[in-house]
Amino acid sequence: MEWKNILRGFAMGVADLIPGVSGGTIAVILGIYDRLIASISGFFSREWKRHALFLIPLGIGMVVTILSLSRVIDFLLENYYAPTQFFFLGLIIGIIPMLFKELDSRAGFKSSYWVAIAIGTVLVASMAFIRPAEAELITNLSPATTALLFFSGWLASMAMLLPGISGSFILLLIGVYPTAIRALSDLNIPLILIIGAGVGVGFIVSSKIIRYLLAHKPGITFAVIIGLVLGSLAVVFPGLPENGVQWGLSILTFAAGWIVVHLLNRISA
Asked: Helices marked H in 108-188 — which ranges?
């Protein structure tokens, strides 16, 4: 088992716990986005063993992180919201120049790509102005709540694979995020299994679509991906820190995020 992929899954799991941050963005930062999409899409093909050897360590890292750190993330967001978000701002801003370089190497940068970048940016940035649904904890399963949780997991997983769009934020918009976090914290197995089933189906369906687009329209697809990442800055930005201590912590965490992404880029190069 590849320990590096467990650590990559750990990083993606942390991102997927935070509304506004995308595991897909972390996959791009780590340089494994294309392989991730190809492995999920091809999991039920004849080469499933090769794909499984890549996905299983990632999945272990993500599951361990989500189960073990959900309360830690809750604590950080409640008590150190701005510094936590500024860490991810540092990550995202650090990766943007690398994404433009990658686009140029894939298809050669064309002026028309600016339109695709703008569309992706507006699509995600507009989510910063959408008010989340009123959230009520789901404790009793009925046919209606089961269907809601399953399709919420489906939509969230599609978002997880797209850089810039947070699966947690989609759950927040639907009003299921508190239920999902409580289920993870309390190890409510029935709720976790229902949401997880939706996540699994969504991963398979959306990965095939993204893989097709990357194979047949690589330039325009990657330009949209850049736009999605750019737009996530508006969603992640927490506003200006409230006091000097928050300013200091936010500057430090922003710098840490920027340094981490450059270290990761060197490791994956």
From this structure: 113-125, 143-161, 167-174, 177-186
pTM of the model: 0.72
DSSP state of 126: G
Residues sharing a CB contact under 8 Å with residue 124, sequence separation 6 or more, in sequence order: 164, 165, 227, 228, 230, 231, 232, 234, 235
The predicted-structure confidence for 136-168, as pLDDT tens digits, reads as follows 777 778 888 899 899 899 888 887 787 767 777
The answer to whether 106 touches 222, Cβ cutoff 8 Å, is yes
Owner of token pair 């299994």: 193
Residue 204's closest CA among 48, 17, 16, 7? Answer: 48
C-alpha to C-alpha distances, 117 to 4, 27, 34, 99, 245, nearest whole angstrom: 31, 19, 19, 12, 36
**Closest by alpha carbon to 20, among 173, 201, 184?**
173
| Residue whose structure tokens are 């595991």 | 23
> Within the chain, what is the greatest distance between any pair of CA atoms?
57
HSE of 252, CA atoms in CB hemisphere, 13 A: 8
What is the average per-residue pLDDT within 168-191? 81
The answer to whether the CB of 68 falls within 8 A of the CB of 232 is: no
- C-alpha torsion angle, residues 4, 43, 29, 168 (rounded to 10): -110
Q: Cβ-count burial of 31 within 10 angstroms (0-12 exposed, 13-18 middle, 19+ buried)?
A: middle
Q: Model confidence over 237-256: pLDDT tens digits? A: 888 888 888 899 999 999 99
Phi, psi of 22, rounded to the nearest 5 degrees: -115, 135
Q: To 10 degrees, what angle do helices 177-186 and 189-216 make?
A: 120
Structure tokens given for 121: 């940016």
